[in-house]
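Give me structure tokens for this 883-residue protein.
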Amino acid sequence: MADLRALFSTNDRSVIAAEVFTNREDQWRTVRDAITGHLTRTADPGFDVEDLETPRRNMVVFHGIGGIGKSTLSRKLEASLTGTEDLPVHWGEPVWPGGRRILPVRIDLARSAGTDFERVILTIRLALAELGPLPAFDIALRRYWEHQHPGASMEEYLQGGGFTSKAGKELPRQVQSVLSDVAQALLLPGTVGSVVGQVTGSLVRALRERRQTVRALAGCTRLADLLEAEPDLDALSYYPHLLAWELERLPADKRVLPVILLDTFEDTGDRTHRDLERLLQRLVWLMPNCFFIVTGRSRLQWAQESLHGQLDWSGPHAWPGLALQPDGGDQILIGDFSPEDCDTYLADRLTRDGQPLIGEDIRAVITDRSHGLPLHLDLSVLRFLELRRTGHTPAAVDFDVAFPALIARTLADLTPEERHVLRSVSLLDSFDLILATRAAGMERQAPVVRLLERPFIRQNAFSLWPYHLHALIRSTIRTADDATDDRWSSQDWKDAAERAFAALGEQWAASTAPGRLLLIGCLRQGLALARDHHLDLGWLTDATWKYISDSVWEPLLPPAPTNPDAESGLQTPADALIETLSALARRQHEHRSRTADRLTAVVDTGLLPAALQEMAVYYRAKSERDLGRTDASRQGMQYVVDGGGRLAPAARRGLAHLARLSGDFPAALAAAETLGWPGRHHRITGDVWWIQGHMGRAAAAYEAARTEAEEHGVVGERATSQAHRALALAFADPHQADDELDLAEQLLTGLDLRATTFITKVAALARDAGTTDPGIGDRITLLRSETAVAGVTAAQVALELADAFHHAVREDHHQVLATLGRLRELTRAGDYAYYADIAAFMSGLPHDTSAAQWIDGEETTRQRWHGLVAARREHLRVDQNLE
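Here you go.
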């Protein structure tokens, strides 16, 4: 159909302007016609449910941008096909060929629904429970269940999994009935429930021998092959073939057409990882007598030849209805567009001689700005034609704009109060009812409630704040020239920002919920508001201290400023705080020198208040310590200690660390005794005893540190203490180290602590030291590269020590000497020099020792480390004898 508005915007009759939209009535008509055609095809005498080569036309796909109503449409279709809801008058009452009963089965594939392929199959079979036993499928399902869920009752599983109560009870009885009937037919003895393997084995032999006792199942030509296959997930994905066969042989009075609605299809994976998608495609292909309605964000790509190998069936021959067609074919676009479809839309709207009139570079800019909103695409097309009409050749830069018309159209039917709320919440990435009311400065919630019902307000029930504005509407309201009568002044915007900022702080301060989700959400939104509107830091200071206290380091970088004219660089305290927190979070992924440079830039501006300035200095000093810049690190730590602020105990701990790095172990141990919990005294003590080779005392100290961290609820410190405990025990007791490493890895789950993660990897190498595992060398090489990229000297020298331990146990002195060389290179600045001493102690090689001040003297320390090597050799000898 021609787009008349675009058509009448140009004198160029060679330009073809085509309309691309559909509506809900058209979508119902599409479903009705598709099901009718499907019923006609499957009623043809030549239709064969076991034919695996005929192209498939048993599905229709609705796709569009998130929140446009795809799930609503899916539910509406389910209700309409079920007959539980009256059809809209204009949809028209369907009359199905042959009077066939429709049985809709809707399955939500959203990740939040936790739907896997096994659940998909069970949902379909449960929906068919009213038809009675389906022997071929049911006996295969029972065999699969016995292997995949040994000892688990199917009935209890179904009831606990939230399946329909009646069907959840009926299906296990039907499956058991089938097994009993088959066992009886085969004259098998014993309790049926315990002989599923014998039943299937005997059934396969009977099918192969074409015995009369199993003639009812003999018509399913592939049943024996499926029963012989390993009953895993892959085999399960072929069982729908058995369901299709059983449905086809039902008596006429029980025949139904299952219409399976697969919603949220985009959550099956992405265009690289298609494991679940492959299984679902197999389901569709193997059930040609069923009809499928798919709803998702993008078109299915099954008709593309390029997917050969990723999917079992691909290309236009296999799926002729899914191939790209001018009228959409069996893939119908609804509402907003996905990025791929935005480009297709723009390419198809204006053409000349079959070629897109709008160039690819312009289409890319429009797509990015539109956020999939059809109205923006429409306005961009008209702008393109207007530019051509005035003699200007359109370029990509001409479309990096917002359209004020979007504001006028969005606000057109809103009340003045609703307009006020809309502008207020445009300052927020997401919000709830209370936050929106406070940001708008409203005394009542009614205007907010009304606004939440508007289609440009999107909802995610699983989000911290469930509501957010359509991205394009939001950006346009905040940045476009607003020519409406009630437009806001710059002061109005700042007042709203202050209200929203205060409301976020109140929510964070009042929350008693566990975890850090609200903290991170409030920080991200609060930092952006403070930056964009030059607000005082206020509650952000306390929130920042809370953020760093757990050492979790979630990324906090808020979106870029909305004002394109905003000055670059660090201009405000909020800018400086954002850069500080970003540097702290990114240090888990960047070289420590990059972290030190970023924090130096912040410190030099002097924009942060004194307490937060000390925080930047402290973490810069930590990075400098990791880099081996001992003097600079000591100077920074002393500055923080002298300030007496919140991080003074941590800085005193830092000075104790620096004493340990220089080899002054008595001073480090003495300092640890004065630090208490704020200075992490137990971990400092463990670090000193570990270096002495006293692994028992070190492990005990680390365990005390972990326990103390648990009592204070500091998850980062807990994980770090446990990782060091695992490292100490990895040198002393490989078997115990296994359990300690498992715990360390569990405690690290969800945390972003790169240095601690390195320690667990080093511990795993120390645990495996001396073995003949050929992979140890590769693991050491890889970790050596990772620690070098990170710039964490402590992890580098610990790795080399584990390497020396491995070669010392194997009495490979040549390799120990090579490791000694690397350690001397890493420690030539003076810090960690005693690591080379320890490597020599372990192997018994001559070595010019450092000036380290060992707690029990050099000779005792030498004996401890050498004893660890001897103990490991004995441990390996015993293990080999046991084998």
